[in-house]
Structure formats: C-alpha cells, structure tokens
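We both want to read discrete structure tokens more fluently, so let's practise on a single case. Would you write everything just below, so we can both look at the same thing?
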Amino acid sequence: MFAIAAREFRAYFSTPLGWISLGAWLLVTGFFFGWSMDLYSAVSLQTASNPFGDPIDLEAYLITPFFGNWAVVLIFLCPALSMRLFAEERSTGSFDLLRSSGVSSAELVLGKYLGALGFLTVAFLATLHYPLLLMRWAEPDLGVLLSCYFGMYLLAAAFLAVGLVASSMTRSQVVALLSSFAVLMVLWIMGLGEGAQDQGWRDWISDVSMLPRVQPMLRGLIHGADVVYFLSVILFLLFVAQQRLELERWQ
C-alpha cells in the first residue's frame, strides 16, 4: 500500500499535471489573498475615518472569506488531481498488471488515495506563507487559522475521494474529471440552498451537503459531528471505489 502511495506521490512531480496544478493553486490562492487584503485595508481605512465606527474584525473580514474562497478552487483542483488515479492505469493497460501482482483492491485504493492526499498536503503546506505574512502586520487568532486549515483540508480530502470514485468507474481521464466536477458542483449548489425558507429542506441540506459542515470551522468552531461526517464520507467513498474494483476483478 505504501509503495503504491509513494509511486503515486512521485508521479505528480514527474509529470506536468502536478506542477501545473500546484502552480495554478498558488496563483489563484495568492490572488484571493491579495484581494482579501486590499478589501480589508479599504474597509479599515473607512472605519478609521469614522470616530464612532466599530473596529474591524480581522477574522470575519479577511481570514474567513479568504479560506472560504478555497472551496471554489478545490472544486477544480481535486478532480484534476484524482482523474488519473485509475483511469490512466486502464488506458495504458498497466491496471491489469497491477491487479495481477497480488495487491488487494483495498490496498490499491488506499495507496492511490494516500499518494494523492500527500500531494494535496504539499499544496496546503505551500500556502503557509500567507498566514506568516498576515502575522507580520496583524495579530490574527491562531486558533481560527488552524481551524480554517483543518476544515479546508477535510473538505479537500472528501473532494479527492469523490474524484477517486469517478476515476475508478472509467478508463477516460476526461470523463473522470467532468463527472467528479459535476458531482462537486451539485454539492456546492446544494450548500447554497441552506438559506431556503422550508425548514425540512434546510435540515436535509445540512445533513447531506459538505459546505455547511465546513463553515463553522472557518469561524474557529470545530464540532465533533462535522469531523465525524467528513471522515465517514471519505471512508464510504473509499469503500465504494474498493467495491468497484472487486466487481471488476470478478467479472
């Protein structure tokens, strides 16, 4: 399993896909960081000129919106990272060799998922200069920063599991990319429906959609139920991918 994970992790850095994805991730998140900083500075100047104005909350006006925008980027990034995990093996014919090597379906799924998650971890670590820059001129709440990173990492891990399932269903990387992107967009739209008037609809959205689960973490609130939800979703999706491979093995 760990050998497969290491191979998948190295594959991202030996192909243009990994470097392009990492560069695009840093470029877009850097844009959001600069935009959030400019917006916060403008609001702060307006507030400073008003002697009766309330002080600006750094977490509410800068940190939470900045990390909230990451969800949009991850909807594009995670399908791009996961589309090749199984589809590429099938298209090149190496998937049959891998299955005949004695590796179980569970080890194959976990190995590929951990390899992709390792690259995603590197992408997150590459953004640590944003909070470091922020701490040079302000005093952000370290707990809120850690909670935001934790929430976004759980969301990204769940998105990656969705892409893994999509890749296990097809031999086309394009189909895997588009299908996982479509599923994540549906989840995004469902999250926007949390403000619906009907109470039953709002409750159903809160139970199913991922985005309402991560929003408290962007405010520094980590609920055990939300963490269990994400871990359950990830384990369930990995189980679906494993069962898909088992079905193919017996056909």
